[in-house]
Design a protein that fits this description.
heterodimer, A: alpha/beta, Rossmann fold, 2 domains, 11 helices, globular, B: Fumarate Reductase Cytochrome B subunit, Fumarate Reductase Iron-sulfur Protein, Chain B, domain 2, 58% helix, 0% strand
């Protein structure tokens, strides 16, 4: 698949409609790379003109800022803003709610003003505009539960867009005990992803996985690469990884449409 | 002027004097925090005051405690109307000043208060039961031992006493109105007392009834006085502070962590984005918050507003899984530290002047204060570094407190000023700084596009 960089667009004297911000996980994490690919396929099938930054993209600085390393955050952010503004980027979509949050809510103070969408928001828009149709019955009758990530849900109040996509699947959607604004964290946020847990009785991802298993779902739909890692790890610890799949919403669409 | 009038007058004066001093001290303690202007968006602020503080919108996410709390709250608000009469009667040596002029309206108001009072009585009993017998987990966390636990119960017992006062007073009064109509003006048929009075005190003679009525009246006002002087030492300050706290809450998006302009400017000049002014401060700069002086005054106001309900802690993923972090404890620690500093400053003792600022004629102030302690003596790194920034605590707080803000401020101090923090983070910091990614990766960032999927 030919994913073009924004520099390639520029070399042809063109500008893409939207920039796909891939993020570190989407670029390097083996599991999250599959999500990037799935989302790229969706963009392609909806005939969206998009580009990535490629090597000009770097960490938004989210984990640094939340760890307390403001210096590193500012360096990362200002560098990214210079690149984004250099290409006169106006609209950004990303499959990572941490990147989404930082680009949307924290870059404006530093001089980066863009329209920022989470990929579930864009997909939901494409569906309602008729540019993307969810076909097939890959998930018909299957029990699917949805895990609200903190940074998309509670922090940015986006509960509906991902659910509206799931509703297209003809699946049996079951909510966990804690969902929407009460959704339980997967345990990765606030740079916890990059450190060992503080002492306690249980890992947070295990708590969340227990809630997901309680629903009896075959699929846990997620919207964040770090949640996917955490939930998958939790399922592995229960040796349930073959019975219950953790999939990004974009992957569900790709499977349903056979893309 | 009768003796009881004099006693009432003196008591009122003493209570208001003590309250004025104590509330003044709290105001001073809040001002120990950093100056920060919070203004604008008046419409949004008043809307919050109306919906969140006055209307308790965020409480109603948990319906049962919300409705019980609402009974107590409504009874408390309405009783203030009755309190006006108590003050007029107390100062003027009159009895039920409003009964005759208001007539039927008086019957309605007092009846309304009585119904709310019964509901509040039931709610208070349920609350005591939830706290002590049902042992709702959020009331039994490690930070809720000793004073916080006693404080919660004292308030509830005080409420019961107050209600006992109201019904003794009104109940005896309804009987006295028939025995001695010259001194006891007709209140009409009060919703509760008109049957509760005869049921409890029926057949008592006038002098006994008079004692019961006076007992109820004095009990009521004494509990109110006690309450006013007790509040400054209690978690119960939320009944007042919830309003300014909600009014001054920050409008910025929940996902936005406060920018640090001083660091932004430094990084900008480092990157050549702005001209370097060449001005380097002699002092080694301190970033983040080590003590209450480095927090915003708003954070300290929040600490005093916290009523230790523990909704934050009960939804905290770290706390839920047995970690030491409890968002409620963070707020309690900030308040306790502010109290400690406030007390020391008030003592004026030289021992609290920092060594390098001690000297002839130097008086203790918040600018030279140093007692060798800080917030880090209250809050451990283990607590700070257990936070996932998930905002569940922020979402849960009924009065818009953010325990997350001070946690991040203290992380900033530890990371930026102490150059400390979890060693696990160093590889991530290094990778972001040198490779622009959270992991050190050998391949190109766009390599995934070439992979076969």
């Amino acid at each position: 698949m030919g994913v073009k960089t924004i520099a390639e667009f520029a070399a042809e004297g063109q500008k893409p409609e939207i920039l796909f911000w891939v993020g570190c996980a989407g670029s390097f994490d083996a599991r999250a790379k599959k999500v990037s690919m799935a989302f790229a396929k969706i963009l392609e099938s909806a005939a969206i003109s998009y580009a990535i930054l490629g090597n000009e993209e770097s960490c938004t600085g989210d984990p640094a800022r939340r760890a307390g390393n403001e210096f590193l955050f500012q360096m990362s952010a200002l560098q990214n803003i210079e690149v984004l503004n250099g290409y006169e980027v106006q609209k950004i979509v990303t499959a990572c709610p941490h990147c989404f949050n930082t680009l949307k809510n924290e870059y404006p103070k530093l001089g980066g003003n863009y329209e920022v969408l989470h990929h579930t928001q864009l997909i939901s828009q494409l569906i309602s505009e008729g540019k993307l149709k969810v076909e097939g019955d890959a998930f018909k009758g299957k029990k699917v539960t949805y895990h609200d990530s903190c940074y998309l849900g509670r922090i940015n109040s986006e509960y509906e867009a991902p659910r509206s996509i799931l509703n297209e699947l003809d699946a049996n959607i079951v909510e966990m005990d804690q969902s929407r604004s009460r959704g339980l964290c997967c345990g990765a946020g606030g740079a916890q992803m990059f450190k060992e847990n503080e002492p306690g009785d249980k890992r947070i991802n295990m708590e969340r996985v227990d809630q997901a298993l309680e629903t009896g779902a075959n699929v846990v739909a997620a919207n964040c690469p770090f949640c996917i890692t955490m939930l998958t790890d939790g399922l592995k610890a229960h040796e349930k990884q073959d019975e219950v799949m953790v999939l990004d919403i974009s992957e569900l669409i790709v499977q349903a449409n056979g893309l | 002027m009768g003796l009881s009038q004099i006693i009432f007058l003196v008591l009122t004066a003493v209570v208001f004097f003590i309250a004025f001093k104590q509330f003044g001290a709290i105001y001073q303690n809040i001002k120990l925090g950093k100056d920060e202007e919070i203004s604008g968006d008046a419409g949004w602020r008043w809307q919050n005051v109306l919906l969140v503080a006055f209307g308790q919108k965020k409480m109603f996410k948990r319906f049962i405690p919300a409705i019980l709390h609402f009974f107590i709250y409504a009874a408390f608000l309405m009783t203030q109307v009755e309190l006006i009469e108590i003050f007029i009667d107390g100062f003027g040596g009159v009895h039920r000043f409003f009964a005759e002029p208001l007539g039927g309206l008086y019957t309605f108001i007092i009846s309304f208060i009585e119904i709310l009072s019964v509901l509040a009585f039931v709610a208070t009993i349920v609350f005591l039961w939830r706290r002590n017998i049902l042992k709702v987990p959020r009331f039994w966390k490690p930070e809720m031992v000793g004073w916080p636990k006693l404080d919660g119960n004292l308030i509830l017992v005080g409420e019961l006493l107050l209600l006992v006062g109201i019904f003794s007073m009104n109940g005896a009064d309804t009987l006295l109105q028939q025995l001695d109509p010259a001194h006891y003006p007709d209140t009409g048929n009060l919703a509760i007392s008109s049957w509760l009075g005869p049921a409890l005190f029926g057949g008592f003679d006038a002098s006994t009834l008079h004692v019961i009525e006076r007992f109820g009246w004095w009990l009521h006002i004494l509990v109110v006085f006690g309450f006013i002087t007790y509040l400054p030492f209690s978690k119960h300050l939320h009944i007042f502070l919830a309003f300014p706290n909600v009014f001054f809450s920050r409008k910025r998006s929940r996902g936005e962590i406060e920018n640090m302009p001083e660091i932004m400017n430094e990084v900008k000049s480092m990157m050549g984005l702005v001209e370097d002014t060449g001005e380097m401060s002699e002092d080694i700069p301190e970033f983040g918050s080590k003590d209450i002086f480095d927090l915003s005054w708003k954070n300290i106001l929040e600490a005093y507003t916290c009523t230790e309900c523990g909704r934050c802690t009960s939804v905290c993923p770290a706390n839920m899984t047995g970690k030491k972090l409890s968002p409620r404890k963070i707020m309690m620690d900030i308040r306790d530290r502010a109290e400690e500093v406030g007390k020391n400053l008030k003592s004026g003792s030289d021992e609290f002047i920092s060594a390098d600022k001690k000297g002839e004629g130097v008086t203790l102030s918040k600018d030279n204060y140093d007692d060798g302690k800080s917030l880090f003596d209250y809050i451990s790194n283990e607590e700070l570094y257990a936070c996932t920034t998930c905002n569940a605590c922020v979402e849960a707080c009924p009065v818009m407190i953010s325990p997350l803000e001070p946690i991040l401020e203290m992380r900033r101090y530890d990371i930026l000023t102490n150059s400390s923090g979890p060693s696990d983070w160093l590889p991530m910091f290094n990778s972001v700084e040198n490779g622009g990614a959270v992991w050190q990766m050998p391949e190109e960032r766009a390599a995934w596009t070439k992979e076969d999927n």
